[in-house]
Amino acid sequence: MKKRLLVYVVLALVLSGCTTLKWVPRFEERRTPQVTVSEGRIVVTPEILFYFQDERDFDILFQLPRESGLTFPENGIVIEGELTDQVIRGDRISVVLNPGQKEIGPCRRLSNVEVACRNLHTRPGVYKYTIRVNGKDGRPLPSRDPPMVNW
Q1: Structural domain that includes position 6
Q2: 144, CA 20 to 30 Å: which among 36, 72, 113, 122?
């Protein structure tokens, strides 16, 4: 069931965000995602962090442009949890996160512009993480919650 959920999430993300086929960036680009702000919104490149089976036990180094005036707060990158195959049905359907997962994290701020998160990648999974950035004026911008996939 978990593998099927992983496949569905990846397919949904690919189909919803792609008008043309996009190839997975090189490992070095996925290992050092760049975080910027455009029109008041946090942007991460690559948009979906996707790691293959042979990419194990490494740091993901999130980086802001050094001279941008943007900074990561102490909780700049937080791994919220692993998506489980459980679903809550109510007014709307929502997925359940396992916040106790041990595959990715904990994340640590190395400087105002760099945060590192350890990815052990001992098994496949889809993870939700939150990016928080303070603007040039020091005020927090609206956070961003993209997915991360260990295949």
Answers
A1: 2-150
A2: 122
Q: Which of 27, 24, 30, 26 is nearest to 10 (CA)?
A: 24
CA 142, 129, 133, 18 torsion: positive or negative?
A: negative
Tell me how far CA of residue 47 lies from CA of 1, 16, 97, 99, in angstroms. 26, 12, 20, 22
Q: Mean pLDDT over residues 50-59, rounded?
A: 96
The answer on pLDDT for 22 being more than 70 is: no
pLDDT of residue 122 exceeding 70, the answer is yes
Q: What region does 147 belong to: left with phi over 0, alpha with psi -120 to 50, or beta? A: beta
Peptide bond between residue 46 and the one before it cis (omega within 30 degrees of 0): yes
* pLDDT of 60: 98
How much is the pTM? 0.81
What mean pLDDT do residues 108-121 have? 98
User: Cα(25)–Cα(116) distance, rounded to whole angstroms?
Assistant: 19
Number of domains in the chain: 1
